[in-house]
Structure to design on (276 residues):
């Protein structure tokens, strides 16, 4: 992976913001780490350790995926999601809330889950599994001066690895349904006709088919994104033939969030071409 690491380093060196990356090839136990322990404002990436804690409590028999919880009016917050638009008292299962938190990054669902699993339990588990650079500080969309959740690329990969190892059947189907695909997986499209990678091209480079909605398909990436002004993150798991790759790319200090998304998309394309 030396050539891949060289390419990644070159892209990060010319990047106008700050970037932290961690990549793990699970089968070969090889890694690429660039600023992997640097802490970043977590944004919605903090929802990954909340997911892990919920799955762990299900595995321990403390929670049940089909148990229902009423939607409290006081927990409704803005930002991403739909629950703040729905009627109070609506009953949602734990599985519903986990899907809403991950798939559409629903902040109200996240705050309900923080109450259900316990903020202290999330942070205790992070300590126990060796993630010193990740901390759940508070509920989302409830700002407190100088108090924010943080994480690192290395910790994010570690938590995703735990989900893959310990709760594959419960966690991976949720992560695979991600609807925000404008970062690492933005240009990961293949031609339906010949399965060639097409990126953002208008024609397949192999069979020359014109690319439209009927002739392309997205490659599944089990992941979670996060974004606030000046910061763009993505972390997830790609299952290639013969290679399971876990990746986290965190960026901040961005003059424009489009810079972060461009880096994410280019590195995602690099990874896909290398491992596929």
């Amino acid at each position: 992976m030396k050539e891949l690491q060289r390419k990644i380093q070159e892209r990060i060196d010319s990047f106008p913001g700050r970037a932290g990356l961690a990549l793990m090839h699970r089968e070969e136990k090889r890694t690429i780490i660039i600023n992997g322990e640097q802490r970043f404002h977590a944004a919605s990436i903090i929802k990954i350790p909340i997911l892990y804690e919920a799955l762990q409590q299900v595995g321990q028999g403390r929670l049940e995926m089909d148990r229902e919880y009423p939607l409290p009016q006081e927990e409704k917050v803005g930002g991403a999601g739909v629950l703040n638009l729905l009627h109070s008292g609506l009953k949602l299962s734990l599985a519903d809330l986990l899907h809403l938190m991950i798939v559409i990054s629903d902040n109200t669902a996240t705050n309900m889950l923080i109450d259900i699993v316990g903020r202290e339990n999330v942070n205790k588990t992070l300590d126990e599994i060796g993630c010193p650079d990740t901390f759940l500080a508070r509920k989302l969309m409830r700002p407190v001066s100088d108090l924010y959740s943080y994480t690192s690329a290395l910790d994010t990969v570690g938590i995703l690895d735990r989900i893959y190892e310990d709760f594959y059947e419960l966690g991976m189907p949720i992560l695979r349904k991600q609807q925000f695909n404008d970062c690492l997986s933005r240009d990961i499209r293949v031609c339906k006709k010949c399965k060639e990678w097409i990126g953002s091209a208008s024609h397949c480079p192999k069979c020359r088919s014109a690319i439209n909605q009927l002739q392309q398909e997205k490659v599944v990436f089990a992941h979670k994104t996060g974004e606030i002004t000046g910061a763009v993150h993505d972390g997830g798991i790609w299952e290639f033939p013969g290679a399971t790759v876990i990746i986290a790319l965190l960026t901040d200090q961005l003059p424009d969030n489009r810079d972060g998304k461009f880096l994410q998309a280019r590195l995602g394309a690099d990874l896909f071409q290398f491992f596929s």
